């Protein structure tokens, strides 16, 4: 599968925003590991292969930031 980079990035960032907004509490900081875990759970719970793919790509993007 070939991805259109700018459009893919928009989808990834939109999904990241939704996931972070769901788990973020006022005054709290979120470690990348928590965000990655939330993305994993979102992908696992979704029956939509496109959402699963976006979650996987977002997790890879964030895991790259850990190293």
Topology:
Layout: H1 5-23, H2 32-45, H3 49-66
Helix pairs in contact: 1-2, 1-3, 2-3
What does the model show?
The chain has three helices and no strands. With 67 residues, the chain is an all-alpha fold.
In short:
The chain is mainly α.
Shape field:
globular
Tell me, rounded to a whole number, the average pLDDT.
86
How many β-strand runs?
A: 0
- The assigned structural class equals mainly alpha
Please compute the radius of gyration using only Cα atoms: 12 Å
* Terminal CA distance: 26 Å
Annotation field: number of helices: 3
How much helicity do the residues have?
A: over 70%
Task: Give unreliable regions as ranges.
Answer: none
Q: What is the chain-wise order of helices and strands? A: HHH
Major sheet attributes: none
Strand content: under 5%
Notable characteristics:
67 residues; mainly alpha; 76% helix; 0% strand
